[in-house]
Amino acid sequence: MKVLVLNCGSSSAKYQLIETSLEAIEKNADREIGRGLVERIGTGSAVHTFQAQGRERVTDTGEILEHREALAHILRMLTHPEHGVIKSPAEIDAVGHRVVHGGEKFTQSALATPEAIRAVEECIGLAPLHNPPNLRGYEAARRVMPDVPQVLVFDTAYHQTMPPHAFLYGLPYVLYTRHAIRRYGFHGTSHRFVGWRSQELLGRPRSETRLVTCHLGNGASACAIDHGRSVDTSMGFTPLEGLLMGTRTGDLDPAVVFHVMHQEELSEQQVNTLLNKHSGLYGISGVSNDMRELLAEEAKGHERAHLAIEMFCYRLRKYIAAYAGAMGGVDAVLFTGGIGENSPSIRARSLAGLEFMGIHVDAARNDAAMRREARITTDASPVAAFVIPTNEELIIARDTVRLVTGTPQV
Ligand code: ADP
Questions:
Q1: Ligand 1 mean position, distance from CA 280 (Å)
Q2: What is the pTM of this model?
Q3: Contact between 359 and 378 (Cβ < 8 Å)
Q4: Which parts of the chain have pLDDT scores under 50?
Protein backbone atom coordinates (compact mmCIF):
# COMPACT_ATOMS: atom_id res chain seq x y z
CA MET A 1 0.00 0.00 0.00
CA LYS A 2 1.05 3.58 -0.57
CA VAL A 3 0.32 5.72 2.46
CA LEU A 4 0.52 9.49 2.42
CA VAL A 5 1.55 10.71 5.87
CA LEU A 6 0.47 14.30 6.53
CA ASN A 7 1.58 16.58 9.34
CA CYS A 8 -0.18 19.93 9.05
CA GLY A 9 0.80 22.98 11.09
CA SER A 10 -0.84 26.38 10.98
CA SER A 11 1.16 27.49 7.93
CA SER A 12 2.88 24.28 6.88
CA ALA A 13 2.22 20.77 5.59
CA LYS A 14 4.94 18.16 5.97
CA TYR A 15 4.44 14.89 4.15
CA GLN A 16 5.91 11.54 3.26
CA LEU A 17 4.77 8.90 0.84
CA ILE A 18 5.56 5.47 2.24
CA GLU A 19 5.21 2.07 0.62
CA THR A 20 4.19 -0.42 3.27
CA SER A 21 2.02 -3.45 3.98
CA LEU A 22 1.43 -5.90 6.82
CA GLU A 23 4.11 -8.12 5.33
CA ALA A 24 6.57 -5.24 4.97
CA ILE A 25 5.93 -4.21 8.60
CA GLU A 26 6.65 -7.77 9.72
CA LYS A 27 9.96 -7.74 7.85
CA ASN A 28 10.78 -4.09 8.65
CA ALA A 29 10.95 -3.65 4.89
CA ASP A 30 8.63 -0.67 4.35
CA ARG A 31 10.23 2.18 2.43
CA GLU A 32 9.96 5.90 1.93
CA ILE A 33 9.16 6.90 -1.65
CA GLY A 34 9.50 10.64 -1.19
CA ARG A 35 9.04 13.45 1.29
CA GLY A 36 8.24 17.13 1.13
CA LEU A 37 7.28 20.28 2.94
CA VAL A 38 4.98 23.14 2.02
CA GLU A 39 5.78 26.24 4.05
CA ARG A 40 4.23 29.69 4.31
CA ILE A 41 0.74 28.46 3.50
CA GLY A 42 -1.59 31.45 3.49
CA THR A 43 0.79 33.66 1.54
CA GLY A 44 1.47 34.48 -2.07
CA SER A 45 4.98 33.09 -1.71
CA ALA A 46 4.52 29.59 -0.35
CA VAL A 47 7.53 27.31 -0.77
CA HIS A 48 7.17 23.65 -1.64
CA THR A 49 10.24 21.42 -1.42
CA PHE A 50 10.13 17.78 -2.41
CA GLN A 51 12.67 15.03 -2.45
CA ALA A 52 12.07 11.67 -4.05
CA GLN A 53 14.23 8.89 -2.56
CA GLY A 54 17.66 8.97 -4.15
CA ARG A 55 16.98 12.05 -6.27
CA GLU A 56 17.76 15.76 -6.12
CA ARG A 57 15.53 18.00 -4.07
CA VAL A 58 13.17 20.22 -6.07
CA THR A 59 11.62 23.50 -4.98
CA ASP A 60 8.51 25.23 -6.23
CA THR A 61 7.02 28.53 -5.10
CA GLY A 62 3.59 29.98 -5.61
CA GLU A 63 0.39 31.20 -4.05
CA ILE A 64 -1.03 28.63 -1.64
CA LEU A 65 -3.71 30.16 0.51
CA GLU A 66 -5.02 27.22 2.50
CA HIS A 67 -4.43 23.55 3.26
CA ARG A 68 -6.68 22.22 0.51
CA GLU A 69 -4.61 24.08 -2.08
CA ALA A 70 -1.47 22.80 -0.38
CA LEU A 71 -2.69 19.22 -0.70
CA ALA A 72 -3.57 19.73 -4.37
CA HIS A 73 -0.04 21.10 -4.82
CA ILE A 74 1.39 18.04 -3.06
CA LEU A 75 -0.56 15.69 -5.34
CA ARG A 76 0.65 17.59 -8.40
CA MET A 77 4.23 17.26 -7.17
CA LEU A 78 3.87 13.54 -6.43
CA THR A 79 2.47 12.94 -9.93
CA HIS A 80 4.72 15.43 -11.75
CA PRO A 81 5.95 13.87 -15.04
CA GLU A 82 9.56 14.79 -14.28
CA HIS A 83 9.96 14.97 -10.49
CA GLY A 84 7.04 12.80 -9.42
CA VAL A 85 6.99 9.30 -7.96
CA ILE A 86 3.50 8.06 -8.86
CA LYS A 87 1.43 8.26 -12.03
CA SER A 88 -1.89 9.17 -10.49
CA PRO A 89 -3.28 10.21 -7.08
CA ALA A 90 -5.41 7.05 -7.30
CA GLU A 91 -2.26 5.11 -6.36
CA ILE A 92 -2.50 6.54 -2.84
CA ASP A 93 -4.33 3.91 -0.79
CA ALA A 94 -4.66 5.75 2.52
CA VAL A 95 -3.75 8.94 4.37
CA GLY A 96 -2.34 8.98 7.90
CA HIS A 97 -2.56 12.25 9.82
CA ARG A 98 -0.45 13.34 12.72
CA VAL A 99 -2.78 14.83 15.33
CA VAL A 100 -1.25 16.48 18.37
CA HIS A 101 -3.93 16.04 21.03
CA GLY A 102 -6.30 13.15 21.54
CA GLY A 103 -7.08 13.99 25.18
CA GLU A 104 -8.32 10.97 27.14
CA LYS A 105 -10.55 9.92 24.26
CA PHE A 106 -7.83 8.29 22.17
CA THR A 107 -5.61 5.62 23.63
CA GLN A 108 -4.61 4.42 20.14
CA SER A 109 -4.68 5.62 16.57
CA ALA A 110 -8.14 5.68 15.00
CA LEU A 111 -9.93 5.63 11.67
CA ALA A 112 -11.14 9.13 10.84
CA THR A 113 -14.86 8.43 11.24
CA PRO A 114 -17.26 11.36 11.81
CA GLU A 115 -17.39 10.40 15.54
CA ALA A 116 -13.59 10.39 15.75
CA ILE A 117 -13.38 13.80 14.08
CA ARG A 118 -15.97 15.15 16.53
CA ALA A 119 -13.87 13.81 19.39
CA VAL A 120 -10.75 15.52 18.00
CA GLU A 121 -12.74 18.76 17.74
CA GLU A 122 -13.66 18.37 21.39
CA CYS A 123 -9.94 18.28 22.19
CA ILE A 124 -9.29 21.66 20.54
CA GLY A 125 -9.46 23.40 23.92
CA LEU A 126 -6.49 21.30 25.04
CA ALA A 127 -4.38 22.13 21.97
CA PRO A 128 -5.83 25.32 20.46
CA LEU A 129 -2.77 25.97 18.28
CA HIS A 130 -2.24 22.43 17.00
CA ASN A 131 -5.46 20.48 16.61
CA PRO A 132 -7.17 23.01 14.28
CA PRO A 133 -4.45 22.80 11.55
CA ASN A 134 -4.35 19.01 11.96
CA LEU A 135 -8.10 18.99 11.35
CA ARG A 136 -7.70 21.29 8.36
CA GLY A 137 -5.30 18.74 6.89
CA TYR A 138 -7.88 16.01 7.40
CA GLU A 139 -10.63 18.11 5.85
CA ALA A 140 -8.41 18.93 2.86
CA ALA A 141 -7.65 15.24 2.27
CA ARG A 142 -11.31 14.29 2.65
CA ARG A 143 -12.30 16.76 -0.02
CA VAL A 144 -9.42 16.19 -2.39
CA MET A 145 -9.41 12.37 -2.00
CA PRO A 146 -12.97 11.54 -0.86
CA ASP A 147 -12.69 7.79 -1.38
CA VAL A 148 -9.38 7.27 0.37
CA PRO A 149 -9.52 6.03 3.99
CA GLN A 150 -7.90 8.29 6.55
CA VAL A 151 -6.35 7.57 9.91
CA LEU A 152 -5.55 9.77 12.91
CA VAL A 153 -2.36 9.16 14.89
CA PHE A 154 -2.02 11.11 18.13
CA ASP A 155 1.06 12.45 19.93
CA THR A 156 -0.67 11.89 23.24
CA ALA A 157 -2.22 8.42 22.77
CA TYR A 158 0.84 6.38 23.71
CA HIS A 159 0.98 8.02 27.15
CA GLN A 160 -2.61 7.14 28.00
CA THR A 161 -1.26 4.11 29.89
CA MET A 162 0.22 6.40 32.55
CA PRO A 163 -1.34 5.64 35.95
CA PRO A 164 -3.20 8.40 37.83
CA HIS A 165 -0.39 8.81 40.36
CA ALA A 166 1.85 9.82 37.43
CA PHE A 167 -0.59 11.87 35.36
CA LEU A 168 -2.31 13.92 38.06
CA TYR A 169 -1.06 17.25 39.37
CA GLY A 170 -1.27 18.05 43.06
CA LEU A 171 -4.26 20.30 42.40
CA PRO A 172 -7.82 19.91 43.68
CA TYR A 173 -9.11 16.72 42.07
CA VAL A 174 -12.19 18.56 40.84
CA LEU A 175 -10.01 20.40 38.28
CA TYR A 176 -9.29 17.04 36.71
CA THR A 177 -12.90 15.91 36.61
CA ARG A 178 -14.25 19.30 35.54
CA HIS A 179 -11.58 20.54 33.11
CA ALA A 180 -9.43 17.46 32.34
CA ILE A 181 -6.40 19.17 33.92
CA ARG A 182 -3.76 16.44 34.01
CA ARG A 183 -0.49 15.48 32.39
CA TYR A 184 -0.92 14.10 28.86
CA GLY A 185 2.61 13.98 27.47
CA PHE A 186 3.61 14.40 23.84
CA HIS A 187 6.12 12.92 21.34
CA GLY A 188 4.29 9.62 21.95
CA THR A 189 4.85 8.38 18.42
CA SER A 190 8.59 8.91 18.73
CA HIS A 191 8.90 7.29 22.17
CA ARG A 192 6.85 4.37 20.92
CA PHE A 193 9.03 3.98 17.81
CA VAL A 194 12.37 3.91 19.61
CA GLY A 195 10.95 1.60 22.28
CA TRP A 196 9.84 -0.74 19.54
CA ARG A 197 13.23 -0.62 17.75
CA SER A 198 15.08 -1.31 21.01
CA GLN A 199 13.75 -4.87 20.97
CA GLU A 200 16.02 -5.84 18.12
CA LEU A 201 19.03 -4.07 19.63
CA LEU A 202 18.48 -5.56 23.07
CA GLY A 203 17.42 -8.96 21.77
CA ARG A 204 14.43 -8.89 24.11
CA PRO A 205 10.76 -8.01 23.61
CA ARG A 206 9.50 -4.70 24.96
CA SER A 207 7.24 -6.64 27.28
CA GLU A 208 10.35 -7.71 29.21
CA THR A 209 12.24 -4.43 29.50
CA ARG A 210 12.28 -1.13 31.36
CA LEU A 211 13.36 1.73 29.13
CA VAL A 212 14.00 5.43 29.49
CA THR A 213 13.62 7.10 26.10
CA CYS A 214 14.96 10.62 25.52
CA HIS A 215 13.57 12.55 22.55
CA LEU A 216 15.88 15.55 22.35
CA GLY A 217 15.02 17.99 19.59
CA ASN A 218 13.96 21.61 19.75
CA GLY A 219 11.20 20.26 21.96
CA ALA A 220 12.44 17.57 24.31
CA SER A 221 10.90 14.93 26.50
CA ALA A 222 11.83 11.78 28.39
CA CYS A 223 9.58 8.77 28.84
CA ALA A 224 9.59 5.78 31.18
CA ILE A 225 8.46 2.68 29.28
CA ASP A 226 7.81 -0.18 31.68
CA HIS A 227 7.26 -3.52 29.97
CA GLY A 228 6.10 -1.84 26.77
CA ARG A 229 3.82 0.77 28.36
CA SER A 230 4.47 4.45 28.93
CA VAL A 231 4.21 4.92 32.70
CA ASP A 232 5.55 8.46 32.92
CA THR A 233 6.74 11.23 30.64
CA SER A 234 8.20 14.66 31.22
CA MET A 235 5.84 16.84 29.18
CA GLY A 236 2.56 17.55 30.88
CA PHE A 237 -0.73 19.32 30.23
CA THR A 238 1.19 21.11 27.48
CA PRO A 239 4.66 20.54 26.03
CA LEU A 240 6.03 23.23 28.37
CA GLU A 241 6.77 20.92 31.29
CA GLY A 242 9.82 18.77 31.92
CA LEU A 243 13.24 19.05 30.31
CA LEU A 244 14.89 22.32 29.43
CA MET A 245 14.15 22.86 25.72
CA GLY A 246 15.25 25.10 22.86
CA THR A 247 12.99 27.98 23.90
CA ARG A 248 10.75 26.46 26.62
CA THR A 249 11.43 26.60 30.34
CA GLY A 250 10.60 23.00 31.20
CA ASP A 251 9.83 22.49 34.92
CA LEU A 252 9.10 25.74 36.71
CA ASP A 253 7.55 26.79 40.00
CA PRO A 254 4.20 28.28 38.87
CA ALA A 255 4.52 31.00 41.50
CA VAL A 256 7.32 32.47 39.37
CA VAL A 257 4.76 33.24 36.68
CA PHE A 258 2.64 35.47 38.91
CA HIS A 259 5.67 37.15 40.38
CA VAL A 260 7.20 37.92 36.98
CA MET A 261 3.87 39.10 35.56
CA HIS A 262 3.61 41.52 38.44
CA GLN A 263 7.24 42.70 38.42
CA GLU A 264 7.53 43.11 34.66
CA GLU A 265 3.89 44.13 34.12
CA LEU A 266 3.35 41.40 31.57
CA SER A 267 0.03 40.32 30.10
CA GLU A 268 -1.08 36.69 29.97
CA GLN A 269 -0.08 36.61 26.31
CA GLN A 270 3.34 38.08 26.97
CA VAL A 271 4.14 35.67 29.76
CA ASN A 272 3.01 32.78 27.57
CA THR A 273 5.48 33.93 24.91
CA LEU A 274 8.17 34.35 27.55
CA LEU A 275 7.77 30.77 28.80
CA ASN A 276 7.42 29.12 25.38
CA LYS A 277 9.58 31.20 23.07
CA HIS A 278 12.13 33.20 25.05
CA SER A 279 13.26 30.70 27.65
CA GLY A 280 15.14 27.40 27.76
CA LEU A 281 18.52 27.15 26.03
CA TYR A 282 17.86 30.44 24.26
CA GLY A 283 16.80 32.31 27.37
CA ILE A 284 19.73 31.13 29.47
CA SER A 285 22.45 31.49 26.83
CA GLY A 286 21.14 34.68 25.24
CA VAL A 287 22.69 33.28 22.05
CA SER A 288 20.60 30.59 20.41
CA ASN A 289 18.08 27.80 20.87
CA ASP A 290 20.14 25.62 18.55
CA MET A 291 22.33 23.09 20.34
CA ARG A 292 24.90 23.00 17.55
CA GLU A 293 25.48 26.75 17.83
CA LEU A 294 25.61 26.56 21.61
CA LEU A 295 28.25 23.83 21.51
CA ALA A 296 30.29 25.93 19.09
CA GLU A 297 29.97 29.01 21.34
CA GLU A 298 30.85 26.98 24.40
CA ALA A 299 34.00 25.76 22.69
CA LYS A 300 34.99 29.42 22.21
CA GLY A 301 34.54 30.03 25.93
CA HIS A 302 31.01 31.51 26.03
CA GLU A 303 30.01 31.11 29.68
CA ARG A 304 26.25 31.26 29.36
CA ALA A 305 26.23 28.88 26.43
CA HIS A 306 28.11 26.53 28.73
CA LEU A 307 25.62 27.14 31.53
CA ALA A 308 22.63 26.46 29.25
CA ILE A 309 24.15 23.17 28.09
CA GLU A 310 24.98 22.17 31.66
CA MET A 311 21.37 22.86 32.70
CA PHE A 312 20.07 20.83 29.76
CA CYS A 313 22.22 17.81 30.61
CA TYR A 314 21.71 18.07 34.36
CA ARG A 315 17.95 18.08 34.06
CA LEU A 316 17.97 15.17 31.66
CA ARG A 317 20.25 13.20 34.02
CA LYS A 318 17.77 13.81 36.87
CA TYR A 319 14.88 12.55 34.76
CA ILE A 320 16.75 9.42 33.68
CA ALA A 321 17.55 8.57 37.29
CA ALA A 322 14.03 9.45 38.45
CA TYR A 323 12.45 7.19 35.84
CA ALA A 324 14.77 4.33 36.77
CA GLY A 325 13.48 4.84 40.30
CA ALA A 326 9.88 4.98 39.11
CA MET A 327 10.26 1.63 37.35
CA GLY A 328 12.43 -0.03 40.01
CA GLY A 329 15.32 -0.23 37.55
CA VAL A 330 16.17 0.32 33.92
CA ASP A 331 17.55 -1.94 31.19
CA ALA A 332 18.32 0.65 28.53
CA VAL A 333 18.39 4.39 27.90
CA LEU A 334 17.55 5.42 24.33
CA PHE A 335 18.49 8.69 22.65
CA THR A 336 16.68 10.15 19.67
CA GLY A 337 15.73 13.51 18.06
CA GLY A 338 18.15 15.98 16.44
CA ILE A 339 20.29 16.38 19.57
CA GLY A 340 19.98 12.78 20.80
CA GLU A 341 20.94 11.34 17.41
CA ASN A 342 23.75 13.76 16.60
CA SER A 343 25.48 14.95 19.72
CA PRO A 344 27.92 12.55 21.44
CA SER A 345 28.85 15.34 23.82
CA ILE A 346 25.29 15.90 25.11
CA ARG A 347 24.73 12.15 25.47
CA ALA A 348 27.97 11.68 27.40
CA ARG A 349 27.39 14.68 29.63
CA SER A 350 23.80 13.64 30.40
CA LEU A 351 24.88 10.14 31.39
CA ALA A 352 27.96 11.26 33.34
CA GLY A 353 27.53 10.40 37.01
CA LEU A 354 25.03 7.61 36.37
CA GLU A 355 27.73 4.92 36.63
CA PHE A 356 26.28 4.13 40.08
CA MET A 357 23.16 2.91 38.23
CA GLY A 358 25.24 0.70 35.96
CA ILE A 359 25.49 3.02 32.95
CA HIS A 360 29.02 3.00 31.54
CA VAL A 361 29.48 4.97 28.33
CA ASP A 362 32.04 3.74 25.79
CA ALA A 363 33.57 7.00 24.57
CA ALA A 364 34.68 5.69 21.18
CA ARG A 365 31.31 4.07 20.45
CA ASN A 366 29.49 7.19 21.56
CA ASP A 367 31.64 9.47 19.41
CA ALA A 368 31.07 7.26 16.38
CA ALA A 369 27.28 7.04 16.81
CA MET A 370 25.78 9.66 14.50
CA ARG A 371 22.32 9.40 12.96
CA ARG A 372 22.35 5.61 13.06
CA GLU A 373 21.37 2.86 15.46
CA ALA A 374 24.26 2.12 17.78
CA ARG A 375 25.06 1.00 21.28
CA ILE A 376 27.04 3.67 23.13
CA THR A 377 27.76 1.80 26.36
CA THR A 378 30.52 -0.75 26.99
CA ASP A 379 29.75 -4.44 26.57
CA ALA A 380 30.15 -4.88 30.32
CA SER A 381 27.76 -2.02 31.18
CA PRO A 382 24.84 -3.56 33.12
CA VAL A 383 22.51 -0.92 31.65
CA ALA A 384 22.77 -0.31 27.91
CA ALA A 385 22.34 3.01 26.12
CA PHE A 386 21.55 3.31 22.42
CA VAL A 387 21.12 5.92 19.74
CA ILE A 388 18.01 5.18 17.70
CA PRO A 389 17.01 7.65 14.97
CA THR A 390 13.30 8.31 15.28
CA ASN A 391 10.80 7.77 12.48
CA GLU A 392 7.40 9.10 13.44
CA GLU A 393 6.16 9.00 9.85
CA LEU A 394 6.80 5.28 9.66
CA ILE A 395 4.71 4.65 12.78
CA ILE A 396 1.91 6.77 11.30
CA ALA A 397 2.07 4.81 8.01
CA ARG A 398 2.07 1.49 9.85
CA ASP A 399 -0.85 2.39 12.09
CA THR A 400 -2.68 3.52 8.97
CA VAL A 401 -2.13 0.15 7.29
CA ARG A 402 -3.22 -1.71 10.41
CA LEU A 403 -6.39 0.31 10.83
CA VAL A 404 -7.33 0.18 7.17
CA THR A 405 -6.86 -3.60 7.12
CA GLY A 406 -8.54 -4.15 10.49
CA THR A 407 -5.34 -5.46 12.10
CA PRO A 408 -4.77 -4.81 15.83
CA GLN A 409 -2.19 -2.14 16.73
CA VAL A 410 0.95 -3.16 18.55
P1 ADP B 1 12.52 19.50 16.07
O2 ADP B 1 12.18 19.28 17.51
O3 ADP B 1 12.29 20.91 15.64
O4 ADP B 1 12.02 18.42 15.13
P5 ADP B 1 15.11 18.27 15.68
O6 ADP B 1 14.74 16.95 16.25
O7 ADP B 1 15.49 18.35 14.25
O8 ADP B 1 14.09 19.41 16.03
O9 ADP B 1 16.37 18.78 16.55
C10 ADP B 1 16.90 20.05 16.40
C11 ADP B 1 18.05 20.20 17.37
O12 ADP B 1 19.06 19.23 17.07
C13 ADP B 1 18.73 21.57 17.30
O14 ADP B 1 18.99 22.06 18.60
C15 ADP B 1 20.03 21.24 16.59
O16 ADP B 1 21.06 22.11 16.94
C17 ADP B 1 20.31 19.87 17.15
N18 ADP B 1 21.35 19.19 16.37
C19 ADP B 1 21.30 18.76 15.09
N20 ADP B 1 22.52 18.27 14.72
C21 ADP B 1 23.32 18.40 15.81
C22 ADP B 1 24.70 18.10 16.09
N23 ADP B 1 25.48 17.56 15.17
N24 ADP B 1 25.16 18.37 17.33
C25 ADP B 1 24.37 18.92 18.25
N26 ADP B 1 23.09 19.23 18.07
C27 ADP B 1 22.58 18.99 16.86
A1: 14
A2: 0.96
A3: no
A4: none
